[in-house]
Design goal:
82 residues, mainly alpha
Length: 82
């Protein structure tokens, strides 16, 4: 269980760290940074959080994309992060 939590945190934090690093080194422009940040927040995190809940058999596979709704992650906060 602990390995799964560590892997989950790596999966959600490494892309964000890489995105920030690319922006700070001026490889990404401001517009590209904002675009990728929106992609990360709305698409990537929706899929990873939904997939984690599906793997834990808390939601159905068809409900993964419902995680994009505001407040849906709060409902599953304990299952996602602990």
């Amino acid at each position: 269980m602990l390995e799964n939590s560590i892997l989950y945190y790596l999966i959600i934090l490494v892309p964000l760290g890489a995105l920030i690093m690319l922006h700070r080194t001026a490889i990404l422009s401001g517009y590209a940074f904002v675009g990728f940040l929106f992609f990360y927040a709305f698409i990537y995190r929706t899929f990873t959080d939904g997939k984690r809940l599906y793997d834990k058999q808390i939601i159905f596979k068809k409900d993964i994309w419902k995680m994009i709704m505001p407040g849906s992650r709060i409902q599953f906060f304990k299952e996602l992060y602990f």
